[in-house]
Amino acid sequence: MGEKGLVSSTSIVVQLGSLAGAGMRRVRRISAAVAWLYLALQPPLSAQVIHVDHGPNALAQRSKPYVIVVSLDGFRYDYAAKYHAKNLLALAKSGASAPQGMIPSFPSLTFPNHYSIVTGLYPEHHGIVANNFYDPVRKQRYRSADAATVEDGSWYAGVPLWVLAEKQGMRSACFFWPASEAEIDGMRPSYYLHYNPTVPGEKRIGQVIQWLLLPPADRPHFITLYYSEPDHTGHEAGPESPETGEAVRQVDGLIGKLVAELKPLRLPVDLIVVSDHGMATVEGNWMDLDHFADLSQFVTVGSLLYAPSEGAASRAYRQLQGASDKFVVYRRGEVPVHLHFQSNLRIGDPVVIPSGPYMVRAHASEKPEIVQPDVKGGHGYDPQEMKSMRAIFFAVGPDFRAGAMVEPFENVDVYPLIARILGLPIGAVDGRLAPLQGILRQPQSSDLPPKD
Ligand SMILES: [Zn+2]
């Protein structure tokens, strides 16, 4: 969005609440137009909430519950028990949980899965097929670290939950979430921020609480909150390391703080804590695909291969077939059905899928001397085959049964669940409510004696 969004007449940059106390007081004394000019001339602040004014909540939406979705990046399904994350374990008692994990979509990477959770679509359908990929039709690359592509809504298909809510007159807010900085289907969240990993965890919670303290007309009913740990430490030190245990307990502490700060608000808040994927200890050296196949005419991004012609795709497929037991190669149309990874040209062709926790890339690129991966932990692998890729799911609040446990389910199912809680009709998606229906309290359950 950047400049374009800032000059749009409905978009005014404001600083909210505790994030910038002195700045806020100054801003209040001057008109919105002057405030915009004042803020536009400032160097970027660490946590600037962008407010897009869509008007107040529709009257029919004001009596709906509130849903906060928190993502703890790379939080493997078994970390809470393994590293004694006491606040998350408490959520499992007072609410619903998936002890054997939630199954990510393939590939088990950050951007594809965050976007699957909020759209109910597999990556082949929502279009974010990797953190970094190429679009052979646009002839452009998408990079998760490049603001220009991340903020460009034309990359994203599907209707993210905040867009679903806004279009039905319900206000929403995102304290970070992949795709929340883009205008999608003509819509943005009412409140959002540009991603800045240095904003402290407590500040993020403070802002979420500020949003919930807004008057009912302006108070967002759907809120996202994102933390990049324990993914970062999991990569660096490996999933079995004491460092990762410490990172787990730190984000668990933030969950405890959030729960404690929500309580005095006395609002009907459903808190859902998820992760995008798990983490595996990587094994072996880098597998360079150009060692086995002539990829000189290909566009490549990581291990994704974009052939210049059908002939080149078929030749590379034959060269890579059986070349190593560390990966399996498929023509795009023959990728196993359970991966839902066929129907989008951004996937490339042929498709190389690691057979275990191995690091695969097309080229050694500029550093051919580096044969050992510079990380101890990795993900992106087949989440149905590798249990270590499984993510977490905890859900607590007035709409969830205390102590309910659910068998492993796919993360695309979270979308119909949240839409049901918020009473928002949805279009056709890949996710289904059925696997999660049992964790919901029935609408009249408060009138009935508690079951067991
Ligand atoms: Zn990661």
Description:
- There is one protein chain.
- The chain is α/β, with parallel strands linked by helices and 452 residues long.
- It folds into three domains: 1-43, no CATH class; 47-280 and 387-439, 3-Layer(aba) Sandwich (Alkaline Phosphatase, subunit A), CATH 3.40.720.10; 287-374, Gyrase A, domain 2, CATH 3.30.1360.
- Helices cover 27% and strands 15% of the residues.
- It is built from 14 helices and 19 strands.
- The longest helix is centred in the middle third of the chain and has 21 residues, at 242-262.
- Residues 1-40 and 444-452 have low confidence and may be disordered.
- Residues 74, 110, 231, 235, 379 line the site of zinc ion (ZN).
Report a brief summary of the structure.
The strands form six sheets. A nine-stranded mixed beta sheet has the order 1-2-8-7-9-3-10-19-4, with helices on both faces. The protein is α/β, with parallel strands linked by helices. 27% of the residues lie in helices and 15% in strands.
Task: Give the SSE layout.
Blueprint: H1 2-7, E1 11-13, H2 21-28, H3 32-40, E2 50-52, E3 66-72, H4 79-82, H5 86-94, E4 96-97, H6 110-119, H7 123-126, E5 132-135, E6 140-143, H8 147-150, H9 161-167, E7 172-175, E8 191-192, H10 201-212, E9 222-227, H11 231-237, H12 242-262, E10 269-274, E11 280-281, E12 287-288, E13 299-301, E14 304-306, H13 310-320, E15 327-330, E16 351-354, E17 360-361, E18 377-378, E19 393-396, H14 414-422
Helix pairs in contact: 10-12
Bound molecules: zinc ion (ZN).
The site of zinc ion has 5 residues, from helix 11.
